[in-house]
Amino acid sequence: MKKRLRPRFIWLLVVVLVLIGAGAYVRSWFGASATPGGSAAKVATNVPFNILLIGNNARKAGGPLSLGTSGGQADILMVAHIDPQKHTVTLISIPRDLLIALPQWNDPVPKIKESFFLGLTQSPQRGPELAMQVVSHFTGMPIKAYVATDFQGFVDAVDAVGCVNIDIPARIYDPLHSGADFQPGVHCLSGPWVLAYIRVRQNTANTYRTTDFQRMDAEAQVLFALKDKLLHNPVQAALHLPALVSTWRKDVATNLSNSQLLSLGLTLAHSHVQHITLGSNGDSMDLAPMPLPGINHENQIDGAYYDVLNPADVTKILKPYGSTGAWTGLPAFPSPKNVPVAVEGSSAYVALLQKAGFPVTQTSTTSPSSRLTVVFPNGQPVDGFVVARALAAGNELVTPGPVSEVTVYGP
Length: 411
What we know:
This protein is an alpha/beta fold.
């Protein structure tokens, strides 16, 4: 099975979480001035609000809002939905490869992570602002505040507390990409080793930690480990917060003032933190080059791996957190009962699609393709997308072709 081999990392969200749970401890270290990265956002601490957390993947970056020598994309996008009345913080992970319309931009690979990069290329730079705008449109949730950091910010945050305990359930070995080499068990990992754990590109030992969605779960696992180390022991918090605040000042950009951050910490002390991941590996697919009206300035995408989410599903998940309706810019997904499918290949595909509600005809038990492929009639891309999502293979090729109905070819 073909895997997407891309680096991953995490950022200084831990500092926000520390402030949420232990704000009183930082009163003596924080002043009232705004931190670098933009004008202060107006955030009320008595009603639910959202903060966009951005991880910049720039190499040799001069700061969290730098393009560096390469990268400069939002390798991590997470919305922190904070509800002061319920004393809850919900971390919402957004797949960075989400296919989303960027109609005003000349971007042949329109993924949500590109919004941050496109903003950074403007003069003056407005990477966080464009990312907030696009993520807010996608989620249907208002977002006016952000926190951004880069690789070094993450390493510094972990090293500021010495190490964090990570329970690794299975062997991980990735010598070519992340350098991760771990045996199962609980390990107290320093910053560089936790970064390697997060950045696993391909675990050659087994099937654990081989997808983007597993990596997002690992990111949340590390954040919770950092939070637990500091917040379960007030003495630990008092010892480590000066180093974390020093790290914050040099590695983080935000439009929240220090006084606002402190106010959040005091308001939300001891809040419950939970995690949601939007989508799953089954939403991932290899899209061939194809026309997609409204998706970008050219109405055409290049071939690449994308995560294709149904806005109706996202709306249902996020409605409890104030979503007024998710949006990706794609046409509405049709009901499976309205998408006839022909299958050339295994009867397993027939059974899977019939269970999902598609009218299916098996035209052959053998396939001319050695790879699972979904071919849709020209002009009907969303029909191909809904079939691919039902197959949920995570790496099937989806392409337009000379067919009269969606056709699945599979070994």
